[in-house]
Amino acid sequence: xxxxxxxxxxxxxxxxxxxxxxxxxxxxxxxxxxxxxxxxxxxxxxxxxxxxxxxxxxxxxxxxxxxxxxxxxxxxxxxxxxxxxxxxxxxxxxxxxxxxxxxxxxxxxxxxxxxxxxxxxxxxxxxxxxxxxxxxxxxxxxxxxxxxxxxxxxxxxxxxxxxxxxxxxxxxxxxxx
Length: 177
Hints:
mainly alpha
């Protein structure tokens, strides 16, 4: 915009020397230097103030963002806490209902035909035990059927498999002599 080259500065100095004269020129130059220094310091202060204001605005925005994040986190935690409390209360109610039903059935069974109702967990165990007994009985029946077949057929192969079933004839007296 406004350029001051060395040649232009020399022209200004010569014109000032002619207009002001050699006696007033050093005084004017000193005053002009002080004014330029004050202008520069004033410009630097304005620049620093603007920078501080911009930093303060950025810090305020950052602080507001942090507060918003904290509020959203707080609401999320409180919502999660409420949902956990609701789930816990519904689970507790369901457990209390099951327990009261169990005690009612147990009381009915004790007053009726004796203690024939077991706890729900025990009912599953009783069914498993009954299935195991049934499987064991079927295995025993199958083994007995196999043994019955092997005894009735009297094959030599079955005798070699089970030597306890083979009858050994007593020794004849002829061979002993």
